[in-house]
Structures are given as structure tokens and as C-alpha cells.
Specification:
Layout (H helix, E strand, L loop, with lengths): L1 H15 L3 H33 L3 H48 L6 H4 L2 H42 L1 H48 L1 H6 L3 H32 L2 H19 L5 H42 L21 E10 L2 E11 L4 E6 L5 H8 L7 E6 L2 E2 L5 H7 E4 L10 H6 L5 H11 L2 H6 L17 H14 L4 E5 L7 H14 L4 E5 L3 H6 L2 E6 L2 E6 L1 H7 L1 H7 L4 H4 L6
Parallel strand pairs: 3-8, 3-9, 6-7, 7-8
Antiparallel strand pairs: 1-2, 1-4, 4-5, 9-10
Length: 581
Amino acid sequence: MIKEYWHFIKDYLKISQTKLSYFIEMIITAISYKSFLLLKTLFAAWIVKYVTNGDWKWAYISLGLLAGSYALYRLFYFINCKIYGKNMNYCYQGLQTRILDKLVSVDDNFTNCISKGKLVNSINTDVLDIGDMCDQISELLTTILQVGAIWIIVAFFDIKISIIFLLYCLLYIILSNYADRKSASYLKKEKHEVDHYSSLFSQVLSGLQEIKTFDMLPKIKKHLAKIQKRYNYNYSKERDYITLRDNDVRCITHIVKIIIYVYILLLMINGQMTVDVLVLIIGYFETTTDYLTKLISSTQEIRKVNISVERVNSILNYKVTDNIVFGDTVIDDIDGVIEFKDVYFKNNLKNVLQGISFTIKANTITAIVGQSGAGKTSIINLLLRLYKPNKGEILIDGINIFDYSKDTYKSNVSVVNQKPFIFNMSIRKNLNFVDTNIDNQIKACKKVGIHDFIVSLPQGYNTVLRENANNISGGQKQLISLARTLLSKAEILLFDEITSSLDPDTASHINDILKELKKDHTIVMITHKPELMKKADRILVLHDGKIVGDGTHQELLENNEHYRWLQARKSASSLGVFDND
């Protein structure tokens, strides 16, 4: 058992990275306030002793010592609570930061290993539990010391009673620990089902429209009922062992108390024990029982928190399947020439790109087109350094993209996605993530044509966007995202289907914006819009991971059957893949 809890404590200290000073201070203050609490029983026995003997002077001195022990107990308990609060904040904030850092460094396989429900619950409940564990450890260590001190004091007065104390403590701890271990195993399974709850409701929130349209609720309820059934079973089993610990095991306390009382009564009858010793032993037995309850409570919480430690560790210890190492090349200004040299890329064992090569000149617009699954998005992901090619290399200004430092690369390559993410904050704060200069923000918003709309709002730039910005249109959200991208001052801009959900007027406005951006940016865009293809200086046609067409809109219409087929799809508009010319 000792080895088991030592393992728990080591895992906690490793993951929490708590300050050693906080940990030591909590233990010292806990020992101090419990020591003064322990002395109260001894001072109470002294009062009885000196009153019985008529020694009023020492009776009053003992009373003063009792009062002083209570005052010092409260003082050190207050200090302990303050340190606990500081440590809780330190651990909580540190762990959340580490989890956030981890999330932005994982690969696509992460969500196959860690469910969204588990992730949400770990960030909230598990991290809070871990922050509380330092207090439980200090309680455990100091309680063991206090129980040992009581045993020594009692042994000084009566060795037989001290043996009863020892046997009682051992039996109580062993049985309670067994019950805790079993209940914790079912609690772990409960948490797993709670993760399923969270994941299910998260998916329901994301797909409410489809659920209503296709009447999916009955089947969802059946799925929920299965989760509830598994949860209820594990909860019932956990409660059985909690009842064993809190009720059945504590019957031992009553039995031992009766045995001690009978033994003390016999000693009193035979004149072998005085009243003050009786008060001391009974008082310390009650204190021991109280300490054992706290000790078991601490071991129970430590075991529970260890489950949280394991869950958070599963996130922090996730190993990226293809760990990408970045270089340290720093360049203040790049031209923006992009070159793919014989690039092969596999994703989930599928050949996505097969030996593609091309060079994109600076200050040009290049459109990448093709059917779904042709490899268009993979080119963007590779340029964002989310993956490494299995073969070949990608260069910017003649330098391998993985040789650039993180800061240099992210300041020169930026992306606008088909569904840009907007935080549930004000427009100003969303822009502040990239550049806090208000003049620069206004300039960028004017450049993309969203400034007039923003200032027309009651709160202007301080207007709070609801979750995922659903209180503005898709086009307005896209323009805010584009303004945010321009604030990055990146030389290379990657656009992934940015006009797919825009109204015709806004889409037409994007065309004008691209023409303006081309003057000082290299633009690479995935698009299915013929209007945008016509604006491109060059179009790359992909099919089955290979480049099967390279030229202008007019050249490809005349010479490339794949491009003509894409343009001629009569049903493309209704399918949301291609608009007719």
C-alpha cells in the first residue's frame, strides 16, 4: 500500500510541477496546526488532574495553555489555507497552459486517441482535482505523524491500550484501503462514460439541424440509454464499496471503543487508573478515530485524483506520429517564391500526392483545382508545415520550408480557411490576437471592405461576436478573418475555398481584394469558382494526386480535358462543387 501511494505522489509531483516551497510550507503548517490540536487533549487532562488535586495554580496554567493551543491552531490553519489557495492557482493555470500548448502541437490522429468529451472534462474537472491533491498529500503525511504521536503518548500511560490502538488502526486502514481501491476502479469507468456523455451532447449541439430534419432523436436516445446503463452499473458498484468503507468498516470503531471502555472500567474499579488518564485515553481515542477518518478521506481523494492524473497524462504524453523538427533560419523579408520538387505524400497509407513539381512566382495568384480527394488541401497543409512530405522537398525562396524558424515561417505564411474560426469575443479582441495597433486594424478592415459594416454596429469594433460569430453573416465573418490575416503581414497567403459560402456580391468583392493583394503577396488558393479561376495568373489542375494541367483559364479550356470536364459539370452548382461559367 505504501509503495502504491508513493507512486501516486510521484506521478502527481511530476505532472503538477508544483513549487517545492509551496509543498514544504503546506506540510510544515499542517504539522503545526495539528500538533496544537493534539495538545488540547493533553492540556484538558492536566486541567482535570490539577482540579482533582486542588492545585488551582497549575489548573489555570493548563487552561491558559489550552486556550493558547486553540489560538495557534487557528493561526497555522489560516496560513495553511492561504498557501493551499496559492498552490491551487499555480497548478491549475500551469496545467491548463500545458494542455493548450499540447493541443496546438498534435496531429490529426490525436482525436482518434483522445475524445473531445474526455478532453473537455480533463481541462475542467481533472485539472481542478489535480490542483487539490497537494493538500491531500500534506493531510496524509501529517495525519500519519499525528497518529504515531498519539500511540507513543498512550503507550507511555498503558501499553496494553496502545496495542489495542495499533491493531485498531491497522485493521481500519487495511479494510478501508481495500474498499477505496475497488470503488476507485468503478469511478474510473464512470468517468469514461461521462466522456461519452460529453462527446454525444457536443455532437448533438453541432448537428441540431440535421437531427431535427432526419428525425434522429429516437436513435440518439437509444445510444444515450446504453451509456446511462453502463454508467448506472458502475455507479452502483462504486456506492457498494463506499458503503462498505463508510458504514461496515466503521462498525469496528464502535466495537473497539466498547472494548477500551470495559478495560478502562476494570482498571478504575481496581484503582489502577486515575480520572485524568481516563480523560486523556478517551480523548485520544476519539482523536485517533477522527484522524483515521481524515487519513482514509485523504487516501480516497489521492486515489481519485490519480485517475485524473492518468487522464491528463494521456493528453500531455500523446506522441505525435511524425514529429516535425523545425530549423533556426531567420529572414526578415522573403520574396515568396514557392517550389515543390518531386513531392510525394501519404495520408493514412493512401497516396495523396504522387511526385508533383511546380514553381510559383512571387506576387502572383495561383489557383489549385480538381475533384474532391485530388490532393488540393494536402498542398495547403504541407505549405503550413502540418505534415512533412514522404519524399521530395518544398522550398520558399530556395530554402527548405522546415529549415525556417517557427517565428519566421508563421510571420510569412498565413491561411484563410473555408470556415474561419472566430472567438466569442469582440471584433477588436479577435483582431488583437494578431496586431493590437488600432490604426492597423482599421486599415486592414477598410482594405477588405468590412470597416463600414463594423462601425455601423451599435458597439462598433467592441461588438461581441457570439460563439463562432453566428450573429453576423458568413461573408462578414470571412472578411473579418481575412482582415485578421492581413494584419499578420505575411508574404504568402493561402486561401482554402474562401468564397464557397459567400453571397455573389461579397464573392465579387473578394475578387477585387485578391487583385489588390497580389501587388505585394504571393497567393495560393483552392477554389471551385470559375470567377476566381479567371482572375488567377496560373491554374494547377490535380487528378489522383498528380498535376494534369498547368496554365491560364483560357489555355486550359482549349487544351485540358480534365479542366473542361470540371467547368462543364451541369450538376456541379447544385452539388456545391463547381459553379457553371
